[in-house]
Amino acid sequence: MRLRSYRNFGSAGPEAPLAATARCFSSSRPRPLQQTPSQRVKLTSETYPDIKRDSRFSPLTKEHVAYFRGILGSDSAVIDGVTNESAADDIEPFNSDWMGKYRGQCKLVLKPGSTEEVSKILKYCNDNLLAVVPQGGNTGLVGGSVPVFDEIVINLSRMNQIVEFDEVSGALVVGAGCILEVADQFLASKGYIFPLDLGAKGSCQIGGNLSTNAGGLRLLRYGSLHGSTLGIEAVLADGTIVDDLCKLRKNNTGYDLKQLFIGAEGTIGIITKASIQCPQRSAAQNVAFFGLESFEKVQQAFREAKGQLSEILSAFELMDESSQALVGEVTKNRRPLEGKYPFYCLIETSGSNADHDSEKLGAFLEDVMEKGIVSDGTLAQDETQIKALWAWREGIAEALGHLGGVYKYDVSIPLQEMYQLVEDTKARVDAAGLLGDTDEYPVREVIGYGHMGDANLHLNVSTRRFDKRVEQCLEPFIYEWIEKRQGSISAEHGLGLQKKNYIGYSRNATTIGLMKGLKTHFDPKGILNPYKYI
Ligand code: FAD
Ligand code: MLT
Ligand code: ZN
User: Fold this and answer.
1) For the chain, which domains are there?
2) Closest residue to atom 33 of ligand 1, CA basis
3) Which ligand is nearest to the CA of 215?
4) N or C: which terminus of the chain carries fewer CB neighbours within 10 A?
5) Which of 107, 113, 169, 115 is nearest to 132 (CA)?
6) Domain named FAD-binding PCMH-type: which ranges (predicted)?
């Protein structure tokens, strides 16, 4: 085992590799390598023939379209494939999900520009039994953001205003369609930061982030959106506007209704605006990237990081060797470390005093090296290297997408057993004869990465093509495995279509009953995002 002194971390010496210089590339849509234009993604209704269209919902007519045109006016706010067959290509991106796994048959996309327009659309849909799918940046990973059949897509992208910002309190009010990165760049100019960051930041919208209760890369530091959301404005299925757009941190007057919309995945209302408590942006940031010999050592490193870096620790992310090999294969970038290790960790610190942070980080690095917890590592020397190191973590999802179909499982498990799930799954897929290096095997690799700091593992089964045999090998096996450990089958991505039938592995009958009651209360006709969630 070769130990490198932390003083050489990230140095430009001949045997100390610099972090690769590529930027994170994860907000573009991956193009599965084995897909040619003629091999389009299968319709969800073909992949899952047991899901039947609810015959209560009315088919769309030209009269419906005319009504929506009357509300929305501008031509660009209505993409009409009902009366105009040539609109099919324009509608396609709204029908297909980011992973190329789900594909709906929607013929009408509406892009409202105000809360009042959303309200009029929903009232009409409710009165006329027209099913709808709220859609933000369409980066969701569980099939929640695209229709299954002919539901109308209500896309929030035009409602992208930064409404107001209080430079003293840090309260930001934005339209639901505001792109996360746009909000964060605005905040950066004011010395603040959005309390959520994730690889899809260039495409995902704040309404979508709230609706999935996205966790992301810095939940460890800033907590969940349940904590940082001050208020929400939403429209219910019958068109009622709920104005709960509080801008204060404290508000104990009655039930905290806004919380119900966070993580509801568009099933009880459409979020139109949000008020978010944003923290001050840290003046000093450091990123270190480690190679470790075992998952036991990863856990030790995490304990030491929490203990020694405490208030400046802002991220602790885990990657296994297979995930890094795949990112390298796709990006062709030079790996951050010379050697290969079974596990890698990315540690970020953010604080207000660069000298203080460097001193703390220096002491930490020396300690974990001396104790033999970490085998090798590199420390980013500037902003470019920070981004480059993050790309090896943030870029995993997109790299996988470029290699073919991915079966994604986003789970919480007690930390000690977190990586065991990857090993057990790999053994199972291998035993079923599905894993191999050549084209006859559907599975290319089973990999694990995730938000170690939140005990959140992303188990990904990378395939050459989606294949029912693989899905049947994985499900319900993975959900049963999680249930035995009292884990969560949905740590941060949500339920969507993928996990609708599996919620019972993580929630008991009483809880599910209460959830169903809520759904019926808010959306008695079931027009909002049908066939999904619960
Ligand atoms: P969409 O995908 O459009 O929608 C998601 C769900 O919310 C759907 O059910 C939709 O119906 C509903 N919805 C959308 N907008 C509204 C609205 N205004 N009102 C009501 N319902 C609405 N997730 C994490 O938690 N952590 C990560 O680190 C993370 N990283 C990612 C990295 C990549 C590269 C990608 C592609 C995805 C990642 N995700 C991650 C998934 C994550 O859920 C989304 O990126 C994001 O939160 C969804 O936002 P969106 O605007 O794209 O929503
Ligand atoms: C991540 O943490 O990278 C995201 O949640 C996306 C994924 O799981 O692939
Ligand atoms: Zn994640």
Assistant:
1) 39-155 (3.30.43.10), 162-277 (3.30.465.10), 282-396 (3.30.70.2190), 404-493 (3.30.70.2740)
2) 200
3) 1
4) N
5) 107
6) 102-281
